[in-house]
Amino acid sequence: MRPGEPARMQATINVTPLVDVVLVLLIIFMVVAPGMMKPGPEVDLPKTGTPPEQGDARDRLLVTIDERGALWIDDQQVTPDRFGDSLRLAAGGMQDTKVVIQGDARLRFGDVRHAMVAVEDAGFKDVGLIAQRAKAREN
Amino acid sequence: MQLNGGAQGSGLHSEINVTPLVDVVLVLLIIFMVVVPLAMQGYDVNIPRTSAEAVSAPQDAPQLILSILPDTCGILEPPAGEGVPADCRVGLADQLFPASELTAHIKAIMGGQPKEQRLLFLAADDRLNYEGVLRIVDLAKAGADDLKIGVIPVE
Predict the structure, then answer these.
(1) What is the ipTM of this complex?
(2) Which of residues 55-84 of B touch A (CB under 8 A)?
(3) Which of B49, B102, B143, B152 has the fewest CB atoms nearer than 10 Å to its CB?
């Protein structure tokens, strides 16, 4: 298209919207993928008034206690006597990793407290108890 | 994009092309929709060790113990609805009062202390329901910023 030449129909396909859509999909999958691989069994989280933010779910060691009191590290069920070793193994030697405990709402407080003691015995200092904001129920 | 000199007949496009703008806004919308549920919410807690450094309170500061016992606060099952049952009473510094007043008591006691000395020991009976105990912890947390919680067993 040189200057002076009469304008003609644009014969090239405008790829900008296509690229936009593809980028959107890419970003969606980048963001969703870790959430879809959320490890551990389904638990009924305790619902409280205003739980403080704990930041991103990644970079954490996720310990789950299901409604029967069984312990899980990520998606692996572990026996109580191997819990400490498994936890250190999962942390890969990084003892300052934060451990978050997802306890089922139907548990007794003692079940969760014993798990917390086990986490501290394994050498981890930073423990968080996961809750859910009461208004965001049925999520 | 028209080059100079071409196309006398076709007029200039005078309207703004909003398509890229809409695209970007939609992307941001979707990102925020997806990221928000991924963030976790919860309470930081400590298990004070008798032998270790952990969360030893300064000697001059009194140790504040919040006790939740089944005979004064019988939440043995997950509490229905929101909040803590009205008949639940908790003990704080040798006083027994309804759990709904806990936020005000914590605010009165902790308000004057520097943030690093705000430490509350939680002595909740093992038989109590976990969700009920967390709801009481939530009430205590609402009373003071940066309140540290140390979980101790009930003797």
Answers:
(1) 0.70
(2) 78, 82-83
(3) B49
Closest to B137 measured CA to CA, from B56, B52, B46: B46
Query: Is residue A49 less than 8 Å (CB to CB) from chain B?
Result: yes
Which B residues 30-59 touch A at CB under 8 Å?
30-31, 34-35, 37-47, 49, 54
CB B117 within 8 A of CB B64: no
Residue in chain B closest to A24 (alpha carbons) equals B27
CA distance B128 to B133: 7
Taking an 8 Å cut-off on Cβ atoms, the answer to whether A127 and B139 are in contact is no
Interchain pair A56, B38: CB under 8 A:
yes
Q: Which pLDDT band, with edges at 50, 70 and 90, does A34 fall under?
A: low
Phi and psi at residue A7, to the nearest 5°? -65, 140
Q: Cα separation of A108 and A3, whole Å?
A: 81
Contact A111, B130 (CB under 8 A): yes
What string of H, E and C letters represents the secondary structure of chain A?
A: CCCCCCCCCCCCCCCHHHHHHHHHHHHHHHHHHHHHCCCCCCCCCCEECCCCEEECCCCCEEEEECCCCCEEECCEEECHHHHHHHHHHHHCCCCCCCEEEEECCCCEHHHHHHHHHHHHHCCCCCEEEEEEEHHHCCC
Stretches in chain B below the pLDDT threshold 70: 1-13, 35-39, 49-62, 155
Q: Is A106 on the interface with B (CB under 8 A)?
A: yes
Q: What is the pLDDT of residues B19-50, one digit of tens each?
A: 887 788 788 878 777 766 666 788 888 887 65
Contact yes or no for A139 and B37 at CB 8 A? yes
